[in-house]
Amino acid sequence: MIYAIAFLTGTALMVVEIAAARLLTVYFGSGVTTWASVIGVVLGALSGGYFLGGLLADRCPRISVLGALLIGATVAIAVMPTLERWLLYLPPEIGVGGLPQVAENVFDRIGGTYGVLLAAVVFLTIPSLLLGTTSPYLIRVASKGVETTGRTAGGLYAVSTLGSIVGTLGTGFVLLPHMGVRSVLLLAAGLVLAAAIFCFGTSLLGRRRGTGLPLIVFVLLGLISTSSSALLRVIYERDSLYHRIIVEEVQGVRYLRFDASYQSGLDLQDPKRAVFTYTDYLHLGMIFSPAAKKVLFIGLGAGIAPTRFYQDYPQMTIHVVEIDPAVKEVAQKFFFFREDDRMTTFIDDGRMFLRKTSEVYDLIVLDAYYGGRQEIISLPFHLATKEFLELAKARLTDQGALVFNLVGRLEGPRSHLSRSIYKTYRTVFPEVYIFPVDYRKLPWLTDRRNLIFISPKKPLKLTPSDIVQRASHFLKKGDLKIPALVTYAGDLYRKPIPTLDVPLLTDDYAPIEFLNP
Predict the structure, then answer these.
(1) DSSP characters for 253-308?
(2) 126-158 as b/e, with b when 16 or more CB fall inside 10 Å?
């Protein structure tokens, strides 16, 4: 019984830690600050739990006291989804270019850059502290004398660590790929509750103290079901190895989210309408490579942009690279994405695909983002470095161009990341043309918006009027199908972009998570 308690609590601790990290990733991104906050808070709380457990075990060496502490841990774990709803989840607001944006949560407003650390403290301190009391309590109760204390402690720590290994691998390889985060947390609460029941022992279940356990279970299930049913607009939700994938439907528009970050939108009544305007801006790449016949998209999302290219340019062969197979399944099931001899999807990391392929492309469209909080860019760092751009350039034809969708700012105190990426692009490509979405419509807006970078392999020396004239010419010929493209072509950013105060991004140094204060 003692060893079963050690195993269950060791397992539950790692399940909670990984699931909580996944929960916070939805709102704060998957960068090192999220994991550092979760690990640091758990370790700190465990230290406090070890001390508290040893103190209580000496003063009151009854295992039923540990059972009461574990009941508290059960409740603390079970209310996490409710806390998420109250403290983290905020409904989206429509921003520039039709892109939904999630408002700052309470931790962002209070803690700023350290909001994720504050959130980790709120969500993880109590359950980790209470679970930390387990080992010293069990050692005190199980030790029969000084002569056997070492063997008892070693055995309990070994079993607890084995449980932690099972919890770590089981959560990563079994639970999260097949269950939602809320369900995983409910399972962890159930494990801790089982450990608490073992603490009370079979003889106590019939006493008055034990009659409260069914009520606790009922309350926990009610809390979880309430928090899970609160998102009434969600029609599909799944945790993959890379994201929490959510499909929402609002007033005839179907949205794809990775964590808290909106990726794509489809108007069910008018599928060709660009719900997110930036997807139309991607067609500006055809102005710089008008004879394009082979295109590579890095990042599938819902497949909206590749599908529109497929429909508008019948001469094209389109390859799509997507790292997450679950994303492809969702795109096919909910967003009508289809493959045939002209449209092929490869499940691979975008950079690894470019390294392995012998293909060359007329256009490479980079639109790959992880999930996470909307306020911090979640572009994979290895797709923004000088070495990656050199690889992409080598996979372009001589008349080819790289088109990159960046969510960021070009002006103001929070523009460091965008300007750093611009600096890196200018190091590799002879020219970089930037088209901020709705720039002339909202020239005063310095907040985040989609920025379309277009970098031809060879210099074209196009003036702003040349770009607009090309767009008009190709529209009249019927080569381009988006009437507003002439307007979009006029959104070329013409101001100088300072780069002396920002770093060049390389594989060795690419602090993407820290560039925007």
Answers:
(1) EEEEEETTEEEEEEESS-TTSBSSTHHHHGGGHHHHSTT--EEEEE--TTSHHHHH
(2) bbbbbbbbbbbbbbbbbbeeeeeeeebbebbee
CATH of 267-514, one of 3.40.50.1820, 3.30.413.10, 3.40.50.150, 3.30.360.10: 3.40.50.150
Beta bridge partners of 508: none
Q: CA-CA distances (angstroms) from residue 342 to 256, 440, 498?
A: 24, 36, 42
Assessment of whether the complete model's pTM goes beyond 0.70? no
Instruction: Please give the pLDDT value at position 2.
Output: 84
- Say what the pLDDT of residue 204 is: 56
Nearest alpha carbon to residue 492 among 464, 454, 451: 464
pLDDT at 101 (0 to 100): 55
Which single residue is written with the structure tokens 């013409």? 494
Helix (H) or strand (E) holding 318: strand 317-322
Question: Does residue 296 contact residue 319 with C-beta atoms inside 8 Å?
Answer: yes
Among candidate residues 358, 364, 376, the one with its CA nearest the CA of residue 416:
376
For domain 2-230, which architecture applies?
Up-down Bundle (1.20)
- Given a contact cutoff of 8 angstroms between Cβ atoms, the answer to whether 271 and 249 are in contact is no
Dist CA 196 CA 64 (whole Å): 8
Parts of the chain with a pLDDT under 70:
29-31, 89-105, 144-148, 202-233, 370-378, 443-447, 516-517
By the 8 A CB rule, do 200 and 58 touch?
no
Q: Which residues pair with 234 in a beta bridge?
A: 248
Residue of 473, 400, 410, 468 whose CA lies nearest to 436:
410
| 3-class state of residue 272 by DSSP | coil
Domain ranges of the chain: 2-230, 267-514
Instruction: Answer whether 472's CB lies under 8 Å from 486's CB.
Output: yes
Give the distance from CA 92 to its chain's centroid.
16
Residue partners of 426: CB distance under 8 A and separation at least 6: 432, 499
pLDDT at 225: 42
> What digits encode the pLDDT tens for the residues 65-80?
899 999 999 999 999 9
Position 234 scores a pLDDT of 82
Among 365, 389, 369, CA closest to 506 = 389
Say if residue 394 is exposed, middle or buried (CB neighbours under 10 Å; 0-12, 13-18, 19+). Answer: exposed
